[in-house]
């Protein structure tokens, strides 16, 4: 009892001390803190275009699009009196740049590739257009926080098409047509999805109920996780070490529990475990290595509003964002590889960047440098002295950070026979506005033997020749042309596209790293095409409607492809691996925009979490640091006020 009393007393002392610290911090900020910058947001209702835009309004003129997205870097195109330079044009970089532009800052975005967008860009080959990273997004109903943020970035011009109410089809077990499997449709109606699972696995009804109850609890606790990144680091770490975060939020109590560990404790059926964990490919870390909290965050993202796709394709995101940057006097330039971040030798402050071009080296200066290149790449850009004085090396070590798993992609262009139209042909109804997930072991035909962690580990441990002959344990297949209502007008209704993604081991392809893109040799092409063809065969087994269509285009991308186009160190597509150590509370506090030397901020996935929304949140946090204001709170208040009509010139009339 005495020990118990002492622990209570110590806890009270800690709470009192923490409260005093917070009060003193607020007072110091109020009296001595930097003045907040301009609020970049406008009322969401003012961004609604009238008349409402439709799929027919998507600009299809390639010259017009290139004039926005493919402006080559030249010295004469560098704006004068820059306020900030952004390295990289992924969604994290674009978010930070557009928000600063809305706050009347002049921003220069520098992209090493030949088109703006990062993983939001698309490419066209033989008339077929493919998305390379954005396959579907959740929470895009008008009025949601995510939608309102996207509208701010794109000036309200970006349109979103809801996918089918059953937006994902999951097949667990044998997927090559030779054995048993389980097939489940995932719906945006959370209660309906839980009901379907209970009907399919009645013996696990209690575990299913517990799992969805956990989703609800974790949904409510995510605000504190993001809030830690806005607090000063010492205060954030004090909150964590005091135990108060775990006391007030289940989010922090579950972060150390892996998805596999949780499912093993609550679910008996292996096929149900796989079904509940099916979309771990959306963040790229197997169930035994990541937190159940991250998975819950992803499921909550989709199970309340379903999935959405940008009308006109993902390149519309950057096409609508760049004009916002230009309106404030900024530019977004391509073929501008940044070779180093320039730091003042005396103060260590970041003051500019060096752009390495074939015609020479350019030094561009600005009072603020923002990196969307990822934490590992950013470390390589800094001078050694400035790097050692920053928090980046310690963060990489303390948080045990590493690159995520590599990925492979297959892009297939299909031609329909004369007289058939993809947009109306009922043969494609099963894949219209719907993704396909295939989870299967290579040595079993029984759905109940699928242990995702084991089969992923076994696959990634194969040597290249074995991988060429094996079935990937996880496949994600998307049919982008059947998601986009503007496709028939833009690309033709007799064309259909398919994109397939799976895990890959960087070491399978690393020996070809020195070769130039497109010229890596016969052995490389044979290896990647063997894996790619098997991926396509497995998809055709489950989608017979596409099996007999003419294949006009077949391209396979490897981790080396990802490294070339998005500069990922080991061919990963989600930045830092979303491991338990990366997601730990202290890692959350440390991974923030202010990790580098003074004058440098980081943005994107590595600051927040992976994906389109994670990248946007990273950009929002970065812009908050740059403008010295809590933009998450600013936007939330504006959305709430706008919904109530408080700030409108004319309040809505009562009906």
TrEMBL record:
Keywords carried by this UniProt record: FAD, Flavoprotein, Membrane, NAD, NADP, Signal, Transmembrane, Transmembrane helix
Transmembrane segments: 6-32
InterPro entries xrefs: FAD/NAD-bd_sf, Retinol_saturase
Pfam families: NAD_binding_8 (PF13450)
Entries under SUPFAM superfamilies matching the protein: FAD/NAD(P)-binding domain
Family the UniProt entry places it in: Belongs to the carotenoid/retinoid oxidoreductase family. CrtISO subfamily.
Protein name: Amine oxidase domain-containing protein
Organism: Macrostomum lignano
Lineage, top ranks: Eukaryota, Metazoa, Spiralia, Lophotrochozoa, Platyhelminthes
């Amino acid at each position: 009892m005495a020990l118990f009393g002492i622990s209570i007393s110590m806890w009270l002392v800690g709470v009192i001390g923490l409260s005093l610290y917070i009060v003193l911090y607020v007072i110091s900020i109020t009296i001595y803190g930097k003045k907040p910058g301009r609020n970049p947001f406008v009322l969401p209702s003012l961004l609604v275009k009238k008349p409402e835009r439709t799929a027919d309004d998507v600009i299809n003129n390639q010259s017009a699009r290139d004039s926005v997205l493919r402006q080559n870097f030249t010295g004469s195109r560098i704006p004068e009196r820059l306020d900030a330079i952004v390295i990289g044009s992924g969604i994290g970089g674009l978010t930070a740049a557009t928000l600063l532009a809305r706050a009347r800052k002049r921003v220069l975005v520098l992209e090493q590739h030949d088109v703006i967008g990062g993983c939001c860009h698309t490419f066209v080959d033989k008339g077929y257009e493919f998305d390379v990273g954005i396959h579907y997004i959740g929470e895009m109903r008008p009025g949601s926080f995510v939608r309102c943020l996207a509208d701010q970035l794109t000036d309200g011009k970006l349109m979103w098409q809801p996918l089918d109410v059953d937006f994902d089809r999951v097949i667990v077990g044998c997927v090559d047509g030779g054995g048993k499997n389980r097939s489940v449709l995932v719906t945006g109606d959370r209660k309906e999805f839980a009901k379907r699972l209970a009907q399919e696995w009645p013996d696990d009804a209690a575990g299913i109920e517990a799992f969805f109850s956990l989703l609800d609890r974790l949904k409510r606790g995510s605000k504190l996780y993001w809030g830690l990144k806005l607090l000063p680091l010492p205060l954030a770490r004090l909150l964590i070490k005091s135990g108060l975060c775990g006391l007030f939020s289940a989010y922090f109590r579950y972060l150390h529990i892996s998805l596999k560990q949780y499912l093993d404790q609550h679910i008996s059926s292996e096929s149900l475990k796989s079904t509940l964990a099916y979309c771990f490919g959306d963040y790229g870390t197997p169930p035994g290595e990541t937190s159940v909290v991250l998975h819950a965050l992803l499921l909550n993202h989709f199970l309340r509003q379903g999935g959405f796709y940008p009308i006109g394709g993902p390149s519309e995101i950057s096409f609508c964002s760049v004009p916002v940057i230009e309106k404030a006097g900024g530019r977004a330039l391509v073929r501008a590889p940044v070779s180093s971040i320039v730091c003042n030798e005396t103060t260590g402050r970041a003051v500019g960047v060096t752009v390495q071009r074939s015609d020479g080296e350019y030094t561009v200066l600005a009072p603020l440098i923002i990196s969307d290149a990822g934490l590992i790449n950013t470390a390589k850009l800094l001078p050694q002295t400035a790097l050692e004085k920053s928090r980046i090396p310690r963060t990489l070590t303390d948080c045990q950070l590493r690159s995520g798993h590599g990925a492979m992609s297959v892009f297939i262009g299909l031609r329909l026979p004369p007289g058939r139209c993809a947009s109306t042909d009922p043969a494609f109804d099963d894949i219209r506005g719907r993704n396909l997930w295939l989870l299967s072991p290579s040595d079993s035909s029984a759905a109940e033997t699928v242990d995702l962690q084991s089969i992923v580990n076994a696959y990634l441990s194969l040597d290249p020749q074995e991988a060429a002959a094996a079935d990937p344990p996880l496949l994600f297949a998307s049919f982008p042309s059947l998601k986009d209502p503007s496709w028939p007008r833009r690309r033709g209704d007799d064309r259909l596209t398919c994109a397939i993604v799976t895990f890959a081991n960087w070491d399978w392809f690393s020996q070809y790293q020195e070769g130039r893109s497109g010229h890596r040799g016969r052995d490389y092409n044979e290896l990647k095409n063997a894996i790619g063809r098997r991926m396509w065969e497995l998809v055709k087994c489950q989608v017979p409607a596409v099996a007999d269509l003419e294949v006009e285009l077949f391209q396979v991308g490897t981790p080396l492809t990802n490294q070339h186009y998005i500069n990922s160190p080991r061919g990963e597509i989600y930045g830092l691996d979303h491991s338990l150590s990366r997601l730990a509370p202290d890692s959350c506090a440390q991974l923030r925009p202010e990790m580098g030397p003074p004058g440098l901020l980081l943005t994107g996935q590595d600051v927040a979490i992976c994906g389109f929304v994670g990248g946007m949140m990273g950009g929002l946090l970065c812009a908050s640091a740059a403008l010295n204001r809590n933009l998450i709170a600013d936007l939330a208040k504006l959305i709430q006020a706008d919904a109530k009509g408080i700030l409108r010139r004319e309040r809505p009339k009562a009906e």
